[in-house]
Amino acid sequence: MSQQDDVRDVMLAAVPSLRAFAISLCGNVDRADDLVQETLLRAWANLSSFQPGTNMSAWLFTILRNLFRSEYRKRRHEVEDVDGSYADSLASLPDQNSRLELGEFRKALKLLPPDQRESLILVGASGFSYEEAAQICGCAVGTIKSRVNRARTRLAEILSIDGASDFGPDRETRAVVNLP
Prior knowledge:
180 residues, mainly alpha, Rna Polymerase Sigma Factor, Chain: A, Arc Repressor Mutant, subunit A, 2 domains, globular
């Protein structure tokens, strides 16, 4: 297996995490998929700028984040469904409690300031260390720790979470809200 095959495999293994991060940034699955695709294309085209021995996943997340920011600046003049009223009118209500909880969680996540939401997703859901998240966001480690702490506290307030029994049994959910 060649080095190029190894790099391709690492990049493809990162796709689910990249997609989840992109969805959390965009709030739109189609845009998120386009963003991930563009991230992979740019990464592949600029593979020579990747420093071997560093974290490929963090590099990909940085590319994705930068692409999102550029796209956001271009699209900020577009009219969007900011409050979600149009989207809500198109969706049917979920039948299961877990889907309702997930919907409530997504709404609560959208209430967080973008920097807190981004930091929380990187550390809590994507599994990056505080140091890696700081590198991706281009800020100090202490800033990431503070953002994640504030985001977790605010989410718990919004969702009226007093303990683990109040919200989600899965490991990823508990990691995001920092519950045992």
